[in-house]
Amino acid sequence: MSRRFSSYIAGQWIEGEGGHADENPSDLATPVGEYGVVDAAHTAQAVEAAAAALPKWAFSTPQQRADVLDFVGSEILARKEELGRLLAMEEGKTLPESIGEAARAGQIFKFFAGEALRIPGEKLASTRPGVDVEITREPVGVVGIIAPWNFPLAIPAWKIAPALAYGNTVVFKPAEIVPGCAWALADILSRAGLPEGVFNLVLGGGRTVGQALVAHPRLDALTFTGSAPTGHALLRQAAERALKVQMEMGGKNPLVVLADADLDKAVECAVNGAYFSTGQRCTASSRLIVENAVYDEFAARMQARLAKVRVGDPLEPGVDIGPVASGAQLDTDLAYIEAGHADGAELLAGGEQVEWKTPGHFLAPTLFAAKPSDRIAREEIFGPVAALLRADDYEHALALANDTEFGLCAGICTNSLKHATHFKRNAQAGMVMVNLPTAGVDPHVPFGGRKASSYGPREQGRYAVEFYTTVKTAYTSA
Ligand code: ADP
């Protein structure tokens, strides 16, 4: 175990304190490496470095920004196998999924390299004679990025790339359990030609480093992806000081299966959406809402399909689902399985840990036949645990789909154009899928939700410009 991951502040690598293990959830005896944590004073230094670098970077040329982002994207793409392997070992996603995520991170940097050259503006005629009106977009300033562990390359990429493309400077705080992926991104960014202080990485805890970042008066904007309780607490804190925020929080995403659906396709959508990436996606289908007429058949097919799913080390070929990412998350998942039993839900599959050659956090994909009021059907679990709910008909299924505090993604499997069209219009979610898993989105179009799932402007694609810029209206009289 020779790898040590450190922070990057004002163009310098900062070792940080201690030797915290960067665990491999598939093999707890063999950590991926270790990392040191920085403190509140280092975090303040990072914000101040970003603030000092801002005036120059805000006026850097679009070409300079495009070149930096293109360099980063090209290197990530060229090294996607190696970076994917690191991701698979650190977070537990299967190797094909991990390599896919690395490739996506590279493509996102490439996309925003292009966007840096297309920063939009408008020129309008004034209502007054002899006056011109120009509407331009300027950087919002120093952007704090607080990221989760479930997409340790892609989520930082879709926050860092637009921040830099639109002329902002960045302090990036990754989740504690994925320092290696964060360090790998920082390593590439440190060689991309950025002036000192434009990009900073701070490794450390949420309550220490995260809080020091959010509380710093020089921070202009905060983009957060993580759990709903943390996000809502940060939202209140941000409101007190009128910080511009973008929050992506939890989901309790429904997948509706109607009686007229192609059931083979519906089962694949459900298995992919609920269990791939170990169910650790905010867009995971954690509520499978099935029309009465096909409920028993669907449940039986799910049981048969889940019996064939292979749980194990994500580096091993043929493994479909890797481990739960951490001991803390495994405890949460097991507690929800207990809650499912306590609420009287019927266990249809899984429900227990799985043995592997190495000691790890392996959990069988778990399916309960549940009631809409059960905790497992209402609260976000963030693990391979799904609730199967029975619906009388389409209207009942739609009502159940919308009966949640969350509103990230909603899916439907149907061959009815009428129901698909109605569902797209009436599902209370930021994203809707028809005959597709709820998880799995394109990188060039907006991502985000409604209700308790999201707050603030959308992420990704051209819509990212809303959060990462502020609008100026200029009037000129010749
Ligand atoms: P999870 O429980 O899945 O780790 P969290 O919402 O707690 O989800 O974490 C998401 C990110 O928010 C992580 O980078 C974490 O360190 C950070 N974080 C957690 N608590 C706080 C906090 N009080 N202030 C700032 N950041 C925090």
Automatic annotation (TrEMBL):
Q: Which InterPro entries match?
A: Ald_DH/histidinol_DH (IPR016161), Ald_DH_C (IPR016163), Ald_DH_CS_CYS (IPR016160), Ald_DH_CS_GLU (IPR029510), Ald_DH_N (IPR016162), Aldehyde_DH_dom (IPR015590)
Q: The organism sits in which domain of life?
A: Bacteria
Query: GO molecular-function annotation terms?
Result: oxidoreductase activity, acting on the aldehyde or oxo group of donors, NAD or NADP as acceptor
Q: Which residues carry out catalysis? A: E248
Aldehyde dehydrogenase domain boundaries: 20-473
Q: Which UniProt keywords apply?
A: Oxidoreductase
User: SUPFAM superfamilies given for it?
Assistant: ALDH-like
Q: Where are the transmembrane segments?
A: none
Q: Which Gene3D superfamilies match?
A: Aldehyde Dehydrogenase, Chain A, domain 1, Aldehyde Dehydrogenase, Chain A, domain 2
Similarity-based family: Belongs to the aldehyde dehydrogenase family.
Q: What is this protein called?
A: Aldehyde dehydrogenase
Organism per entry: Pseudoxanthomonas suwonensis
